[in-house]
Amino acid sequence: MATFETDVVQDIRFARSADGVGIAYAVHGAGPPLLIDACWLSHLQFDWQSPVWRHFLEGMGRVATVIRYDERGHGLSDRNVTDHGLEARVADLEAVADDAGFERFALMAMAQGGPVAIEYAVRHPERLTRLMFYGSYAGAHAAATQQELEMYAAFEALIRVGWARPGSEFRRVFSSMMIPDGTEEQMRWLDDLQQMACDTETAVISRAQRQIIDASARLPEIDVPTLVLHSRGDRMNGFSHARDLASHIRGARLVALESSNHIVLEDEPAWPVLLREVTDFIEADRVVPPPATVGDDITTILSPRELDILRLAAEGYDNEAIAAVLVLSIRTVERHLQNAYAKLGLQGRTARTAAVARLLSRA
User: Are residues 303 and 176 in the same domain?
Assistant: First the structure.
């Protein structure tokens, strides 16, 4: 256990990813579980002392049991890592989720964590109660303008030249883009956090590998309640990314935060809005629904995607045909069916027949 200057206690643990990399994660707060997908500028200990992050951690901890982790190569996680590809990062998230021990949880993707969370949501829909994106994207280059592409190239050069320098003038470029309305004290903390989070080589390699990941094609496969939170004037990840997420995820709701900061700060009006939206969104997770019974309305138990799949199954379609009609992978169809069977209390070889019968009995 570790106690910090804010008198907040967090439990720091380590999970082992599929390739053996140790991923540091921490648990604090009380309430329904909320797993926060890694933000590249993080340090599980240093963040608690930060005038940029402290209010966010304390606010989330008042409404949820927060599980957050340092990305591979960053913070307290294993350093000197060269693989920052999508599969490795999804495996990190899987390792943390499994090690934390919560059967189901809400997932929040921050910044570059979007593609990882999207892939996890598609692969493991049965684990998620709901999904949130905060200042995030499906792909860094998705719908990027020429000006943005040129900016990405300039950023890499800045990292190579100035990341390790004692002075913060090069790192200040990133700080001023993330929190343009921040105070000098807040800017200095972000300047320092960049060096504390990772070394120059990791910053360059991880960023280059993140830039080529695009999970946009997976968005239509997501079938959990989804909330997209994004600052309208975000200079790091433009607001167009939020529109892209919300318009391609079925039923997603978009909340535009009136801020120019990538990280919404404590003293701006957008912060209580963000906290209220998250609080209201996860409120349903505080209530554990009773097991389904034969008399329950199946349409109130299953998600829209599960119902779509079950209706096609009722028409005689096999899993391969269902996947083709709904433009899903066969694996995703199988996972949705298994999730539906679990909700209906069905198992074994007769589960599909029994689920279809439940659906048809309502017709």
Answer: no
Residue 100 lies in a domain: yes
**Buried (b) or exposed (e) across 108-119, using 16+ Cβ within 10 A?**
bbbbbbbbbbbb
Radius of gyration of the chain (CA): 21
Report yes or no on 292 lying in a domain: no
Q: Which residue range is the domain that position 83 belongs to?
A: 2-286
- Give 2 or 55, the one with higher predicted confidence: 55
71 within 8 A of 41, measured Cβ to Cβ = no
Helix segments in the chain, DSSP class H? 54-63, 86-100, 114-123, 146-162, 171-178, 184-197, 200-211, 239-248, 270-282, 298-301, 304-314, 319-326, 330-344, 351-362
The answer to whether residues 352 and 278 belong to one domain is no
Please count the structural domains in the chain.
Answer: 2
Is residue 241 left, alpha or beta, with left meaning phi > 0 and alpha meaning psi from -120 to 50?
alpha
Torsion angle, alpha carbons of 90, 42, 142, 126, to 10? 30
| Tokens 């949705």, residue located | 336
Bridge partner residues of 253 (DSSP)? 227
Confidence of residue 216 (pLDDT cuts 50, 70, 90): very high
CATH number at residue 60: 3.40.50.1820
pLDDT tens for 60-88 read: 999 999 999 999 999 999 999 999 999 99
Question: In this structure, what token pair is assigned to residue 127?
Answer: 């684990």
Please check whether residue 244 lies inside any domain of the structure: yes
Residue whose C-alpha is closest to residue 226's, from 360, 89, 107, 319: 107
How many CB atoms sit inside 10 A of residue 287's CB? 8
